[in-house]
Design brief:
Layout: H1 2-24, H2 33-36, H3 38-55, E1 69-71, E2 86-90, E3 99-102, E4 108-111, H4 142-149, E5 154-155, E6 157-159, H5 165-168, H6 171-177, E7 179-180, E8 182-184, H7 195-205, E9 210-212, E10 219-220, E11 227-232, H8 247-253, E12 257-262, E13 265-269, H9 275-285, E14 293-295, H10 307-313, E15 317-320, H11 332-340, E16 344-347, H12 348-351, E17 354-358, E18 365-367
Parallel strand pairs: 4-6, 5-7, 6-8, 8-9, 13-14, 14-15, 15-16
Antiparallel strand pairs: 1-18, 2-3, 2-17, 3-4, 10-11, 11-12, 12-13
Helix pairs in contact: 6-7, 9-10
Length: 372
């Protein structure tokens, strides 16, 4: 009987203790909107930080973009695409232009070929009265090393945007050492030079090389799935000497302009087209020339990359091909316009040869330089 009493007393005490604890526990806190929305709010803040990082407008509470920070692609770029890729190389050739393109069908294209030699020597040298050397015996141009390192033995499509030496200087080497399947030209005669005629003669003598003069509105046949459309050329080819002191500008403004589009991404190559011609193209085509990437015209000259043109193109990335020069390229005004347009700027004189790939892997960009 005593054991039963003790057991009962212990049980009653435990029950009373439990009741007291229950009555003294804190009242439940209702899960309000603030807590329900916390994950959504956090995600929103993260997205805003990423957007700020991409636009370069982060406030003092957000760390500055450091080297090699990988972020999601800017708006307008495909986020996850696969299949055969297009690889575009903005080749560092000094003070000149050259873009090498690997197409998804295994063929390639070369837009311009840079200057004739690494030192930028112009032949014949106006300060040297001696006869110029045989052009075929000159040192290899800068483009030679790039092509040699990749084992390139043939250029399927070669474009001379306009006949200035910093664009055609490497083409004689290419015709001498490689096979060329197709040569695109403007037909403009640079009256102040002779080597442009030499390059054209090489093209005529190249076995199996087709020569054409693309007009505005043409689409170049560079393979299935790739659109290479011409948005500007030279409707009135002739001699530059007919334009007097404006001869150089005339040649620049007659540059062949090509927009290469593949799998939802696009790159606009403009040669040395100047501001007046840029505005004309922008007014004529508007959003049709919108492109993710812009190969900046005329090495960043103050007379190219017009604001109205940038408003139409809206580039996410801008590549400036430039070397040591006495022209002030690229100018502060051009860099400022590109920055205001929201473009990430790459320069071959600072960053070397740059690659832009479309397809084959997710499109992820790595911001690797300080913004201007």
């Amino acid at each position: 009987m005593r054991k039963l009493f003790i057991s009962t007393a212990v049980a009653v005490s435990a029950l009373i203790f439990a009741v007291v604890l229950y009555q003294r526990r804190p009242a439940p806190v209702p899960l309000g909107d603030d807590l329900r929305d916390a994950p959504r709010s956090i995600n929103g803040d993260v997205k805003k930080v990423l957007q700020d990082l991409k636009s370069g407008e982060q406030d003092s509470s957000v760390p500055e973009v450091s080297d090699h920070v990988t972020v999601e692609p800017p708006p307008g770029l495909p986020a996850d695409i696969s299949g055969p890729s297009v690889k575009i190389y903005f080749v560092s050739v000094g003070q000149g232009d050259s873009e090498y393109i690997e197409l998804p069908n295994g063929k390639n294209a070369l837009i311009d070929a840079g200057p004739p030699d690494p030192k930028g020597v112009i032949y014949p040298d106006p300060n040297n009265p001696a006869p110029p050397p045989d052009p075929d015996t000159l040192p290899d141009p800068p483009i030679a090393q790039f092509l040699s390192e990749r084992g390139v033995s043939r250029i399927d499509y070669m474009v001379l945007t306009h006949p200035h030496a910093d664009h055609y200087g490497g083409m004689r080497y290419i015709f001498n050492k490689l096979e060329v399947g197709h040569f695109y030209d403007t037909g403009i005669d640079n009256s102040a030079a002779t080597e442009d005629d030499g390059v054209r003669e090489k093209a005529k003598n190249e076995p199996g090389c087709a020569i054409s003069y693309p007009a505005e509105g043409d689409t170049l046949e560079w393979g299935s799935g790739v659109e290479a459309k011409v948005y500007h050329s030279c409707p009135n080819p002739g001699k530059s000497s007919d334009y007097g002191p404006e001869a150089g500008n005339f040649i620049n403004d007659c540059s062949i302009v090509i927009r290469l589009a593949y799998q939802g991404s696009s790159v606009l190559f403009v040669g040395d087209m100047g501001g007046a011609a840029e505005v004309q193209v922008a007014q004529t085509y508007g959003e049709k020339i919108r492109s993710n990437v812009l190969k900046v015209g005329h090495h960043g000259s103050a007379h190219s990359t017009a604001e109205a043109f940038l408003n139409a193109v809206k580039p996410n990335i801008a590549y400036i091909e430039v070397g040591h020069n006495n022209y002030g390229h690229p100018t502060a005004s051009t860099l400022s316009r590109l920055k205001d347009a929201g473009a990430l700027i790459h320069r071959s004189d600072q960053d070397g040869t740059q690659e832009y790939s479309i397809g084959g892997k997710p499109q992820v960009l790595s911001y690797e330089q300080t913004r201007y």
